[in-house]
Amino acid sequence: MSSFVSIYSRFRFENWLNASLRTFSSKNRYAHTDLPKVSFQEYRRKSLRNSNVSTRRSFDERTVANHVMSFVAGVAGLYGFKSHLLHYIEGMGAARNLVAEAQVEIKLQNINVGKVSIFKWRGKPIFVYHRSQAVIEQERQTDVTKLRDPETDEQRVKRPEWLVMIGICTHLGCIPIPNSGIIHGGFYCPCHGSHFDGAGRIRKGPAPTNLEIPEYRFLDNSTILIG
Ligand code: FES
Hints:
It is rod-shaped, with a radius of gyration of 51 Å. It has helices spanning 2-25, 46-49, 55-92, 96-102, 133-140, 153-156, and strands spanning 104-107, 116-121, 124-130, 162-166, 177-178, 187-189, 194-196, 202-204, 216-220, 223-226. It folds into two domains: 44-92; 102-226, 3-layer Sandwich (Rieske Iron-sulfur Protein), CATH 2.102.10. The chain has 227 residues and is an alpha+beta fold. The longest helix is centred in the N-terminal third of the chain and has 38 residues, at 55-92. The strands form three sheets. Strands 5-6-7-8 form a four-stranded antiparallel beta sheet, with no helix packed on it. Strands 1-10-9 form a three-stranded antiparallel beta sheet. Strands 2-3-4 form a three-stranded antiparallel beta sheet, with no helix packed on it. The relative contact order is 0.10.
């Protein structure tokens, strides 16, 4: 009897074990451990990719790099600011070439009687006319009341033999030709036919006013300073 019980018991245990194993092996697995692991390595700094290097070390390296970059950016910023500032400070004063052009000294001894020499002053042509006695007398006898822009010859010169003018036609800005036109010893603007006399006064043509007289003075008998 006892042997029957023992055989029976053993039989039941084996059945239970087999059933349990079958049940266990046929269970669904809900943990998706077969999915590939996502790697963010390529998004990490190069200095942090090596897991064997301590974070402290890379932190120190990055701190040093940041300080160097801040220093370089600061120096560049200061240099740019200084250049900008200097640009404005220099711009507030006149440029050297403009200062040099502000006044022009002209030697008169090489300008012969009857000749007009042309100089440049502030980008404009300056006519320096060494007038003959005949031209001086002619201009002094002109009836000023008949002129479009009435000015006496004495008002236009500091010394009778020297006429100093800006050589730009007062009509539209052409440069008149000396010793040309209908007036003896005068000037002619070919652009639209303006005639100026030997004192630079408009006598015929569309120019509305006389040729302009610049600011000048005699430094001595043979030198003038324009400007
Ligand atoms: S520009 Fe001289 S006449 Fe017109």
